[in-house]
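A student in our group prepared the protein record below, which I am reviewing. This is what I was given:
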Amino acid sequence: LDCKKILIDNLNHFLDPIREKRKKYEAIDTQDILENGIKNARKAAKQTLEEVRELVKV
């Protein structure tokens, strides 16, 4: 029974930071995160395509 208590304590010690991060991200609107990621990806892709077109002379 003592070993189970030690195991539970160790698991909780390990999982507590993960739980805190999860709480933080639950409060953030995931739709906003996705939309910002899409905007950044499009911006990067546009810049890359412009560089490729310039190099290929298209």
Q: What stands out?
A: Residues 30-56 form the longest helix (27 residues).
